[in-house]
Every structure is written in C-alpha cells, then in structure tokens.
Specification:
Elements (H helix, E strand, L loop, with lengths): L1 H24 L10 H10 L3 E14 L2 E14 L2 H9 L1 H14 L13 H16 L4 E12 L2
Antiparallel strand pairs: 1-2, 2-3
Amino acid sequence: MKKMIVFGALGLLLLGGGGAAAFMMMGGSDAKPPTAEEIAAAAAAREPVYLRMEGLTAPIIRTNRIRHYIFLNVTLEMADTSARDEAMKIRPRLHDAFLREFYSKSITDKDGRGTIDFESIKRRLAKQADKVLGENQVLNVLVTRAVRGAG
C-alpha cells in the first residue's frame, strides 16, 4: 500500500512538472519582449568590462622626421565578457592594428602646436578595433596614460 502511494505521488509530480514545462514552452506566458528603453537601462546597470592594452608607442612626426615618442596605455571598454575573451585571444593583431594606425597619421592636433589630439586617437583606435574584432565589440576607448619619451 505504501509503495502505491509513493509511486502515485511520484507520478503526479512528474505529470505536474511535465505540464508546467509544456505550458512554458508553448508560450503560455504573456511576457512582452523588452523595449529599447529597458535594454538601455539594463546595459547601463551592468558592470563594465575592460581590456587593458599597455605598451603602445606613437611617434610625433614633424617635417618627415620622428621628433619624439608618446608612450600610451589604452583600455578598451568591451560589450561583454565574451567580447573581451575573444579580443584577448587576438590581442597581438589588435596591438598591431593600433601601431599601424599611429604610424600612418600624426596623433597631434592639426593646429601645429604639437598637442596630442586624444579625441582623434580614441576615434581612430575604435575604428581599428571594429575592423579587427567586429562591429559593436568595443564600446569606448580610454587613454589611461600618456608619457612623452625621448626621440
């Protein structure tokens, strides 16, 4: 008799669980997809994910000569941890793209005073990161250190 009660209770639990699973899989819920505002709020509430790129060297070129160097530490704000993990796998390619960008065009302002154009650097590095990693993997480029070296 006790065995029948135990097996009966187990059968009811299995049927109840199966029915609940079927209800959920068939879309029995009236949940609506999240709106753009909800997605933006969730993105703002998430913990930022960073990838540090240290040891970048950018030349300061005047009259077709390298006058001195700027040593930069750059940190990339990534879309998520999987984007950071993928970027870490190909970090040498990313580093190479950044150096090629620095050597292809001056990092100073166009006004001739020789000041570093950080906004241009950030924009150019973000473009290179998009080429190497794919669109929307890097949310922001942060220059965390810039030191002038001898040349």
